[in-house]
Amino acid sequence: MTPVHATIENVSRRGFLKGVLATGGLVVAAEFVPARAALAAYATGAAKMTGGVVSDPHVFISIDPSGLVTIVAHRAEMGTGIRTSLPMAIADELEADWSRVKIVQSPGDEKKYGNQNTDGSRSMRHFIQPMRECGAAMRQMLETAAAQRWGVAVGEVQAQNHEVVHKLSGRKLGYGDLAAAASALPTPLADQIKLKDQAAFRYLGKGNVQVVDLFDITTGRAVYGIDTKLSGLKYAVIGRPPVMGGKLASYDGTAAMKVPGVEKIIVIEGTPPPSKFQPIGGVAVIARNTWAAIKGRDALVVHWDDGPHASYDSGAYKAQLEETARKPGKVVRNEGDAEKALAGAAKTVSAEYYIPHLAHATMEPPSATARVANGKCEAWAATQSPGTTRTELADKLGLKPEDVTVNVTLLGGGFGRKSKPDYVLEAALLSREMGGVPVKVTWTREDDLHHDYLHTVSAERIDAGLDAQGRVVAWRHRSVAPTIRATFVPDPKFEQSGELTMGLIDEPFDIPNLRCEVGEAEAHTRIGWFRSVSNIPHAFATQCFVAELAHAAGRDPKEMLIELLGPPRRVDPRPSLQNGAEYTNMGDPLETYPIDTARLRRVVELVADKADWGKKLPPRHGQGIAVHRSFLSYVATVVEVAVDEKGRLSVPRVDTAIDCGFAANPERIYSQIEGAAVMGLSLAKYGEISFKNGRVQQNNLDGFQVIRIEESPPITHVHIVPNGIDVPSSGVGEPGLPPFAPALCNAIFAATGKRIRRLPIGDQLAT
Amino acid sequence: MVKLRVNGQEQSFDGDSSMPLLWYLRDELGLTGTKYGCGVALCGACTVHVDGEAARACITALSDVAGRSVITIEGLDRDGNHPVQKAWRALNVPQCGYCQVGQIMQAAALLATNKNPSEEEIYSAMSGNICRCGCYQRITAAVKAAATGA
Predict the structure, then answer these.
(1) CATH top-level class of A314-358+453-752
(2) How far apart are the first and last CA of chain B?
(3) How many whole angstroms separate alpha carbon A554 and alpha carbon A549?
(4) Which uninterrupted H or E stretch holds A11?
(5) What region, left, alpha or beta, does residue A614 occupy, with left being phi > 0 and alpha being psi -120 to 50 degrees?
(6) Which H/E stretch holds residue A440?
(7) Is any Cβ of chain B less than 8 angstroms from the Cβ of A361?
(8) DSSP secondary structure, B78-134, as one string
(9) CA A86, B101, B92 angle in degrees (round to 5)?
(10) Nearest to B92 among A210, A223, A362 (CB)
(11) Residue of A529, A224, A219 lying closest to A365 (CA atoms)
């Protein structure tokens, strides 16, 4: 029989998919239903990702004679709990006793494991089905092995909690006894796999499984990228060009070499912009410990040739973005005639919003260790994308991918930063220069803030027209922001479809005249994915503006929001897109993951009910509400604020409702949403990376502040919309973030009458 | 030559005595439970106990701890069952986990001198420990739980 994964591994098929994607054509799910989709209850875009999907139980599950079940985690753990939650899906279908399950982390190998790029809130969305299939297939193999052993029909036996039971005789065989026979059996074909009924789940949907690393985290035994220990390890800290595209003019390493412990200085050749995932170059100091490397780097005398971005000033750039947003841009979506409707409106409302660059500031800064020797490379890295890291290392070093091993450690935070493996490439280049000695590269916090792939900077302008009854008849949203694409291709000028998809062209409002435009913006720094990406500025503008419209019309903001969402329906923006804009739906089919205003309305009503929307509040308190669909999930947030006479802001309560389809691990959904409130408050209150003379102005966590415990919301109440397993699971890691800042600023308006349109809030509330 | 005690064991180091304790622990002794986060005492990820008091290892020079006793997360409790560690697990506090060692060491130092801290006292003691994942509400709850043995 053919193993389940055979069609996915088929090379010609992968070639075909690549070809179609390369044309940039709109992806329609029906064209991509994989050959084995007979089993999958619903289609996803997983097969289109690099490496696609593998659901071979032999790849992910092994059982030893003692009955210990080893499950492979192939996605990276950065705090979402995915290293627990996907193996849990396997264990549940396998009827495994979780206390007899061991998790091992796979190295980067997308041919073997399928896609490993842990980004885009995709892991549960793309892999709950294949992982359930894996577990179910192995369960059926164990049942078949037991039935054969007993000489009974397979229908008479049932796997239950780590053993197979013969119902009529009460005989039992443990998984350890059956392992060898079961694994020699053919893997059931896709259409023979029987998934459990939801009622039979042991772990899925329960939140009763603790994360597998919990003990190690609390005892300091958990190993992150920065913790790699190897015999003969050398430590590197690198001085990099402070301006994007800058080059080394000259350096003097005399003083650095005098620092005790410093052993060598190596120049790393940089890649000019667009530098993609490549190192930006610099001067590396190699030492016998990190401290000597830091001191050595500080003692370097380096002269940089700054290049064309040396005049980048974020204050002047803000004015430029805003100016662009005041002029007509490139139309990317058009319904009706917004210009005419605006001209004829009884009342018009306009507002401009600004969100600056943000740094990821993962608590563990980028760090990686590599050993390049004898035609092979082995790396140990906190990386979100081990597959890409492997490919990039192979390309850079001129090796075959099979000669490159990428070991994936735990990540001390990711948020998108660790999708870009530039720091792993640095370690590999240095090890090669050191003749195969293993080298660990550590980015200091200063390095991290100065050379991040920053969240974009954005000016948003919305103009709306109201009729005499206060109904919104026209909506024109202009977005101007440098695109992530600028990190990969020269001067792409406009936000790209992947960014437009995040809360601009998928605007679900029921407005007859609706127009979205984008303006040109040149990138002057590396820009990259930051948790929830362009949803942050798009949702901030849109959801603040709804409250502004409500105020202008003398209406309740929540009622205004519900009215704009309109009647329950599925929105398809595709027919109204223009100028090459494509609605990507995060690469997943709209048929599986629709834009469903009924679900948007439901989270709004749920959160309003739970937060007691409109309740009587003390003076200088206020509530604000916002809703946003991102990563195919629906999230609504109500923030309550208090602003004292001196303008000091506190957040006594947060309520968030999330509809993420089937909630596979509710306990980790709670923690992700709690965390999103804290990160949302951080970016709203303090978040800003600014530039002068092309250089980042913030050096450490005093300049780039994040929320501390005493200013954190004391409680974020999380309300998960209950869904059955038939409702496709969607994103959780990112979608909690976008609605927070607008709900907060709407609450500040309710409390004080002061409208915040420019983030961070900083001292704007000071009196 | 600097002599000190780390987790009950005598250690000596004849290198650069201005080296912060953090890098000595991590790179020389291999005690990687203590984390680097900022290098300038802004984040608390490197918190250890020096003679029983919480200290930021990233700004504590080795010369400052000569003759003193340092406890790291590896030495907090032999079995990893300090009440704070147990409370952290009972309430599923960590997300990525990177800052949690520093949080736990800070909380353990607080509870060593204040058996029943108020919320304000918890905030005050824990304010120097940043969690970028945003586990703060669970950290507060876990410190309270560890204090009461709940």
Answers:
(1) alpha beta
(2) 45
(3) 8
(4) helix A11-22
(5) left
(6) strand A439-442
(7) yes
(8) TTS--HHHHHHHHTT--SS-TTHHHHHHHHHHHHHH-SS--HHHHHHHHTT---SS-
(9) 40
(10) A210
(11) A224
A226 contacts chain B (CB < 8 A): yes
Instruction: State how far the Cα of B113 lies from the Cα of A516, in Å rounded to an integer.
Output: 59
Residue A31 burial (10 A CB sphere; 0-12, 13-18, 19+)? exposed
Residues in B closer than 8 angstroms to A118, CB to CB, are none
**Strands of A602-705, DSSP E:** 621-630, 633-643, 649-659, 691-692, 695-696
d(CA A434, CA A334): 58
pLDDT of residue A757: 98
pLDDT higher than 50, residue A31 = no
Residues in chain A: 767
Residue A639 CA, chain-centre distance (Å), reads 23
pLDDT exceeds cutoff 80 at A680:
yes
CATH class of A225-308+366-442: alpha beta
Token code pair at residue A185? 């059996």
Q: What is the per-residue pLDDT across A330-382, written as a single tens digit (0 to 9) for each?
A: 999 999 999 999 999 999 999 999 999 999 999 999 999 999 999 999 999 99
Picking from A213, A363, A705 by the largest number of B CB atoms within 10 A of its own CB, the best residue to mutate is: A363
> Looking up tokens 């029987």, which residue turns up?
A194
Residue of A nearest to B28 (CA): A289
The percent of chain A in helix, strand and coil, each rounded to the nearest 5, is 35, 25, 45
Cα gap A54→A90, rounded to integer Å: 13
* A410/B139 CB distance under 8 A: no
Buried b (16+ CB within 10 A) or exposed e, A341-359: bbeebeeebebbbbbbbbb
Q: Pick the closest to residue A115 from A172, A46, A69, A190 (CA basis).
A: A46
3-class secondary-structure state, position A627 = strand
Q: Given an 8 Å threshold on Cβ–Cβ distance, is A219 in contact with B80?
A: yes
**DSSP symbol at A207:** -
Domains of chain B, CATH where assigned: 2-76 (3.10.20.30), 83-148 (1.10.150.120)
B132 contacts on A by Cβ (under 8 Å): 361-363, 413, 415, 679, 706
Do B138 and A219 count as a contact with CB atoms less than 8 A apart? no
Amino acid at A57: P
Mean local confidence (pLDDT), A640-656: 98
Query: Tell me, what's the pLDDT at A16?
Result: 30
Given the candidates 3.90.1150.10, 3.30.365.10, 1.20.140.10, 2.30.40.10, the CATH classification of the domain at A6-217 is 3.30.365.10
Q: How far apart are CA B134 and CA A498, in angstroms?
A: 27
What Å distances lie between residue A466 and A328, A440, A472, A673, CA to CA? 21, 60, 4, 35
State the residue for tokens 């890098």.
Answer: B23
Spatial strand order of the sheet with A367-373 comes to A262-268, A282-287, A234-239, A439-442, A367-373, A376-381, A404-408
- Buried-exposed string A433-451: b where 16+ CB fall within 10 A, e elsewhere: bbeebbbbbbbbbbbbbbb
CA dist A263 and A252 (Å) reads 15
Specify the DSSP element, H or E, that contains A462. strand A458-466
Tell me how far apart the alpha carbons of residues A330 and A119 are, in angstroms, rounded to a whole number: 29
SS3 category, A116:
coil
DSSP string, B11-35: EEE-S-TTSBHHHIIIIIS--TTS-
pLDDT band at A39 (very low <50, low <70, confident <90, very high): low
Q: What pLDDT, on the 0 to 100 scale, is given for residue A767?
A: 87
Compute the distance between CA of residue A238 and CA of residue A254 in angstroms, rounded to an integer.
16
C-alpha B2/C-alpha B68 separation (Å) is 10
| Residues A335/A506, Cβ–Cβ less than 8 Å | no
- Residues A421 and A381: beta-carbon distance below 8 Å: yes
